[in-house]
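Chapter summary example.
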Amino acid sequence: MKSPVEIQKTIVEEVSVKKAKLSIVQMALLGILAGMYIGFGGIMALTAMTQVEPYGLKKVLGGAFFTVGLMLVVIAGAELFTGNVLMLTSLYAKKITLRQMLRNWLVVYFFNLIGSLLIAWMLVQTNLWGVGQAVNDFGKTAISVANAKVTLSFNAIFFRGILCNILVDLAVILAIAADTVEGKILGIFFPIMTFVAIGFEHSVANMSLIPIGLFIKAASNFGPETLNWTGFWKNIIGATLGNIVGPGIFVTAFYYLSYYKPSVQSKT
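The structure predicted for these 268 residues follows.
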């Protein structure tokens, strides 16, 4: 496996630079795939949590099965906005420009949203949630999870977003550290399971989890009034800001200063 210094060198000089040079078409296609992959993880988490009564077990099961989403992104290859926050380290090192980073973030973010909405819409067409007004247990779980997210305060969403993406970007770092597929899977599993089980907020995951609940509500006319698109955007904006701030300070800046800054490099 790579050492912490080698990991940061890989992120700064290889991974982020490649991401900055992707074409708009590549970012769009890979962004859609990432939205769908994270959506698959969310759907699997909802399935695992359905009809599970002990609260702790329910959350841990959801977290354990949600991990498949980031595994698909990292190993199969896709562009995920929350993971690309790590490009900040390369910006600090002046290996990419602010314009290149923002170009990647904006395009990838938009197409993550497209992919997320697409998989949410397709799931509802399967009737796995029920038919008409007959909403089954899976559908009720999806509505409950979505409603819980949209009824959080903006402050709670923001700080849950901060803590969430610290763990997500650490999962990406652990995957980069590993030299084997098995090692990457193990590196991704525990940080992602942790953030989901605790209840932190991931902007891209919520781009599919909340619409799944909204689409089921629209199709069945079942669900609380509090579950609406206004709440969706409140959650997404709060989570997105937190997802940037968390690793932007506690992962990228701290690791840049500790392992990559020229003065540090000269001593190692």
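To summarize the output: The mean pLDDT is 97.
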